[in-house]
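Exercise 7.
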Amino acid sequence: MTIDPRLPDPPAALNVGLVPLARFTLNAFGSFIDALRLAADERDRSRPIRCRWEVMSPAARAIPASCGVSVTATADLLDPSRFDYIVAVGGLLGHDEAQDAPIVDYLRNAAGKGVAVVGICTGVFAMAKAGLLDGRKACVSWLHYQDMVDRFDRVEPDTSRLFVADGKRITCAGGVGAARLAAWMIERHLGHDIAQKALSIMMVESSRTAAAAQPQPPIAQSVRDPRVARAILLLEERLSDPPRIDQLADRVGISRRQLERGFREELGMSFGDFSRRLRLDHGLWLTVTTDRSVLDITLECGFNGQSHFATLFRKAFGLTPTEVRRLSAADADALLHTRLQFKPRSVMERRAAMKAIATLE
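Solution. The predicted structure, written as tokens, is:
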């Protein structure tokens, strides 16, 4: 693309207004805005040609991130009608949230003008305060699930996806999900190739679904016995080369028989059955949410051969990996969310398990 400097800038196909909240997460903000930057121009030259953005705050103040770094706004709160999306990026809860009131009002104003409103990380909470999510599902990180339940009884939190697009209300769990969300927007306005280019440069794997599954917390956080929890963590670190139960028992300092009994009491299955199902669940997640080859997934999940993996996969999920790849995005997504066996318990139970695990470190 060649731009003649003597001519006025052509209109951008995608215009985004970003509104970071106090103590926002820099990772989510950076991932989102960097995807826009890479999509906006050729290679990584970063000129705001195909898409443009403004970072806004009341009175164009600097906004502190949760890590201590501050970002300077490029503008005051501009007329939301100038943008295709208004994106609120949050982070830590528990700060003086009264200072968020002008932004909550701004989001409400944007929605009233028909502009799509987006919440990333705890920016979703600002949308809920504005009354924009009543009676809707809202994507939040599993870490903030209970916070959403406690604060907003008219909002249904969803921790199963990276983001949820419900018309002109879009919510995102944060982290790398912010890059996936930006790519989804880019694809809608600029095309698949440009969206894929941005993700490739950022070294983020593309997703086969519009809203891929949100990675869940370690299963170890949902068990009460810290020795079993520690064994699960060690297994999760080595899915491609799963350790034997006697190796794990030695690492956590108990007998093989004690550890086997712990798995049956905590998870209702033998260690061998648990290890196999854990790796199959991981294989299903990779099959649905990535374009990696079945052989690559087989190796990452610690199975001896592709044929053996496919047989066990079919037994667990009713289809082979190749057959899953032929499903529509909606059917593949439904399979993922209904057939994964290990799901996290409540936030309070997970926190208690984390404390128990920490005593073993």
